[in-house]
Backbone:
């Protein structure tokens, strides 16, 4: 019986790692180091956020076993890896993360891991191929808003990149990964069209999305929605008092009907905004929960990327139309 050698001692470079992973996959009964799951020959893919894991699941199909480290309600800006996450990352064949500093507190860990196994930021695909569609981060040269998954067509462009990277690790199934990516990309383009049609039904002056943090910039640009977040692009930023006052003015003077809470961010700031508007004589309601940086429970309709997008669009329409 073949016994896997400790990967950390064997695989000091990604090239050696790829060769070792290929050899391991070719042999049956090969137990994966650092994992108690049985080895069924499928690639072990570990992802940070739900949307990234969803992408890997669709592109990898039956050839992969995908685990997302961050579950429902988890804020990726503040997330720190737990010991169990480190074990999963160490046992992974491939790791995908969002990048653009979304997983700010995991950056060092992912950087170290990338020196000894294939670790990829899916947003690298967009930097290389769709830089003109990225939203620059104000005051930070060369940095971009990481919430790219809210432009569905832009997110679809990451599917190809995931297929390429899975193929590098598992060249024997490259054609399958390419086919899966093309199919999922087509599905996402259909979803993109649906979002556009649905949101266009909200009168333009009411098409204003106010949320807990600035996660919806790409959504706003893609679907012609004016977006405002109480906190900045990272929940690690404090809400700025001047911006909050301007936001209250906007809600009151334009008689906006609803603001939204996010499942991965505290409701406190949004509720304070509602109270501040009430004190100025404008009753505004909470229009519902949006899935911004985390998807819903795996066994629910919002447990997939497409389901989360549909939920968000339906919630926004119901509250604003
Ligand atoms: Zn965010």
Residues:
């Amino acid at each position: 019986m073949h016994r896997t050698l400790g990967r950390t001692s064997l695989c000091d470079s990604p090239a050696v790692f790829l060769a070792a992973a290929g050899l391991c996959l070719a042999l049956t009964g090969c137990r994966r180091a650092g994992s108690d799951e049985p080895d069924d020959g499928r690639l072990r893919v570990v992802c940070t956020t739900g949307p990234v894991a969803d992408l890997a699941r669709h592109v990898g199909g039956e050839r992969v076993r995908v685990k997302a480290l961050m579950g429902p309600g988890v804020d990726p800006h503040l997330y720190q890896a737990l010991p169990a996450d480190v074990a999963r990352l160490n046992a992974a064949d491939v790791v995908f993360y969002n990048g653009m500093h979304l997983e700010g507190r995991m950056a060092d860990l992912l950087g170290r891991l990338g020196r000894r196994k294939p670790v990829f930021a899916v947003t690298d695909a967009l930097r290389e191929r769709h830089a003109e569609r990225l939203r620059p981060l104000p005051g930070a040269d060369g940095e971009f808003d990481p919430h790219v998954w809210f432009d569905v067509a832009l997110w679809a462009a990451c599917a190809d990149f995931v297929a390429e990277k899975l193929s590098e690790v598992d060249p024997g199934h490259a054609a399958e990964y390419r086919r899966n990516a093309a199919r999922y990309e087509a599905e996402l383009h259909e979803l993109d069209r649906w979002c556009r049609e649905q949101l266009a039904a909200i009168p333009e002056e009411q098409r204003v999305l106010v949320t807990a943090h600035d996660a919806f910039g790409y959504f706003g640009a893609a679907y012609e929605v004016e977006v405002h977040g109480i906190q900045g692009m990272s929940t690690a930023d404090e809400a700025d008092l001047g911006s909050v006052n301007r936001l209250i003015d906007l809600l009151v003077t334009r008689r906006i009907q609803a603001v939204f809470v996010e499942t991965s961010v505290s409701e406190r700031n949004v509720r304070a905004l509602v109270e501040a508007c009430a004190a100025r004589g404008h009753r505004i309601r909470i229009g519902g929960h949006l899935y911004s940086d985390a998807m819903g429970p795996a066994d629910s309709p919002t447990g997939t990327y497409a389901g989360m997008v549909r939920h968000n669009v339906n919630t926004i329409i119901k509250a604003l139309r």
User: Anything to note?
Assistant: Residues 33 and 169 are 17 Å apart (CA to CA).
